[in-house]
Amino acid sequence: HDIHNTTNKQIAGAYPGVTTQEFLATTSEPPADLGQWTYDFTDPDGPQLGTIALPGMSSVYETEDPVVLIGEHTVLGVTLPPEIVDPVDLIVLCDRSRNRFAERKFLVLEVESNPGVVHIGAFNTKDEMPTPSRILGHVTMVQIPWLPSMKKKKSGFMEEDTLW
To answer: Please, which residues bridge with residue 93 across strands?
Structure first.
């Protein structure tokens, strides 16, 4: 990951609990040229709330209508090392331009039985989707923060344990 090449995206809210209106209301600037920087200084003198810098990688660059959700790993079903017992916030990048069914992709849905609330799920076939529901977008990337428990374990060999 190139941390010096980032793209700013708006955050719609924390999942679960994001409303359809919040998900659809966010706007994002077009991406910078691949390999370039983009900035959002909405209020240069105040706290920078509501935007996030993402790595400048192809999955971010190719997200045409981006919106970001923040979701706990336990709610999203992401497995982390067993030492991690508290919920960890993950960044979930979604593309609202991809609003058609696709097999084995995580979809962002509004389900009629719970209107106005965003749901995330993956389905092998369209028949497995809750009906009726509306596809609001696809999840294009989930970013997991680096946590101390992910630190490389000591091998006992200086050559392996030293970062050059």
So the answer is: 68, 141
Tokens of 25: 């209301």
Write out the two tokens for 158. 């200086």
Cα–Cα distance between 51 and 17 in angstroms, integer?
Answer: 19
Token pair 């993402």 in the structure block, residue? 54
> Three-class SS string for the chain?
CCCCCEEEEEEEEEECCCEHHHHHHCCCCCCCCCCCCCCCCCCCCCCCCCEEEEECCHHHHCCCCEEEEEEEHHHHCCCCCCCCCCCCEEEEEEECCCCCCCCCCEEEEEECCCCCEEEEEECCCHHHCCCCEEEEEEEEEEECCCCHHHCCCCCCCHHHHCCC
What token pair was written down for 60?
């971010």
Q: What is the pLDDT of residues 33-73, one digit of tens each?
A: 554 445 555 666 665 456 777 888 898 889 999 988 888 89
